[in-house]
């Protein structure tokens, strides 16, 4: 299957899947029923043996606990990474300042993650039908993540915090989808507000050319996310403080469980829906 065919099938799936819409049964309020979560995805591709994956195993990048594509799937040849941008309705709903995320944003975080997994499943089934082996790390029993530092962690996980053994954002970087933001999200050509997913496959796809050399190339350091953060978790000097951000998310979870979220740093900012570097260059 060509990239074009896969992307076209997947775009149709995203447009039509009931999982891309909040159902009446799940809606947190009646007006949420029918909310469309995502626009169509954009795609990145990497050689599963790209040396950059080894770089991710370094301390200070993802860390030694990061598992290489071939450690997840021994027959790995390519990695497919996608970004699902949130719909305008989801993004605009979260423009209000303060600690309270919009109800649309909460849905996009929870039901939105389910849709990410459904798209991974769709891609895997389409490729398996052609004899390609596929594995979704975030849906695999070996997938593991840690939040705050835990002294009992040893070996590759010693000292690990706010990390995992497969980082969608770092994989998106390797796959040519974009670069990191001051707020530690990923800025793509469709912006930062959305979610990432990936599938490791045993078939060959031409890697996407990375149109950047630095890990923060697309962030224009405008400071808008610093001002938007309601708890001061982002600074132009020191970047993002994960512990402060995580504490706010935990607070929202206590109130709205199983829902939680914030996303103020991803909305009403120049990188929300586009690559601000290109906009700056055109100005
Ligand atoms: S709002 Fe500005 S500083 Fe913050 S991540 Fe986006 S481009 Fe970078
Ligand atoms: S850094 Fe965290 S707390 Fe601050 S705006 Fe972003 S998501 Fe919210």
How are the elements arranged and paired?
Layout: H1 3-16, E1 42-47, H2 51-55, H3 69-72, E2 78-85, H4 88-93, H5 103-128, E3 134-135, E4 145-146, E5 163-164, H6 168-174, E6 178-180, E7 186-188, E8 194-201, H7 224-228, E9 234-235, E10 239-240, H8 242-256, H9 276-282
Antiparallel strand pairs: 1-2, 2-8, 3-8, 4-5, 6-7, 9-10
The chain binds iron/sulfur cluster (SF4) (2 copies).
* Strand residues, percent: 5-15%
* Poorly predicted runs of 5 or more residues: none
The chain-level mean pLDDT equals 95
As a whole number of angstroms, the C-alpha radius of gyration is 18 Å
Number of strands: 10
Could you explain the architecture of this structure?
This protein is an alpha+beta fold. It is built from nine helices and ten strands. It has helices spanning 3-16, 51-55, 69-72, 88-93, 103-128, 168-174, 224-228, 242-256, 276-282, and strands at residues 42-47, 78-85, 134-135, 145-146, 163-164, 178-180, 186-188, 194-201, 234-235, 239-240. The strands form four sheets. A four-stranded antiparallel beta sheet has the order 1-2-8-3, with helices on both faces. It has a two-stranded antiparallel ribbon with strand order 4-5. A two-stranded antiparallel sheet has the order 6-7. The longest helix has 26 residues, at 103-128. The radius of gyration is 18 Å and the shape is globular. The model has no long low-confidence stretch (mean pLDDT 95). The structure holds iron/sulfur cluster (SF4) (2 copies). One iron/sulfur cluster binds next to helix 7.
């Amino acid at each position: 299957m060509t990239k074009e065919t896969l992307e076209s099938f997947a775009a149709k799936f995203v447009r039509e899947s009931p999982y891309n819409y909040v159902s009446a049964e799940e809606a947190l309020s009646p007006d949420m029923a029918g909310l469309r979560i995502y626009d169509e995805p954009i795609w990145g591709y990497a050689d599963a043996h790209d040396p950059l994956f080894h770089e991710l195993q370094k301390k200070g990048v993802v860390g030694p606990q990061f598992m290489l594509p071939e450690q997840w799937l021994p027959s790995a040849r390519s990695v497919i990474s996608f970004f699902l941008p949130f719909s305008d309705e989801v993004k605009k709903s979260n423009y209000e300042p303060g600690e309270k995320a919009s109800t649309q944003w909460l849905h996009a975080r929870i039901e939105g993650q389910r849709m990410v997994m459904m798209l991974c499943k769709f891609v895997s089934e389409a490729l398996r039908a052609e004899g390609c082996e596929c594995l979704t790390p975030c849906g695999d029993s070996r997938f593991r993540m840690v939040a705050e530092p835990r002294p009992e962690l040893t070996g590759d996980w010693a000292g690990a915090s706010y990390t995992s053994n497969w980082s969608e954002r770092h994989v998106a970087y390797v796959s040519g989808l974009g670069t990191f933001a001051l707020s530690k999200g990923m800025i793509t050509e469709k912006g930062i507000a959305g979610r990432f997913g990936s599938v490791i496959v045993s078939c060959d796809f031409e890697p996407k050319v990375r149109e950047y050399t630095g890990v923060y190339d697309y962030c224009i350091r405008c400071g808008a996310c610093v001002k938007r953060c309601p708890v001061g978790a982002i600074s132009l000097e020191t970047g993002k403080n994960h512990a402060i951000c995580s504490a706010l998310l935990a607070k929202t979870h206590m109130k709205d469980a199983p829902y939680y979220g914030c996303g103020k740093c991803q909305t009403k900012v120049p990188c929300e829906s586009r690559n601000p570097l290109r906009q700056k260059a055109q100005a």
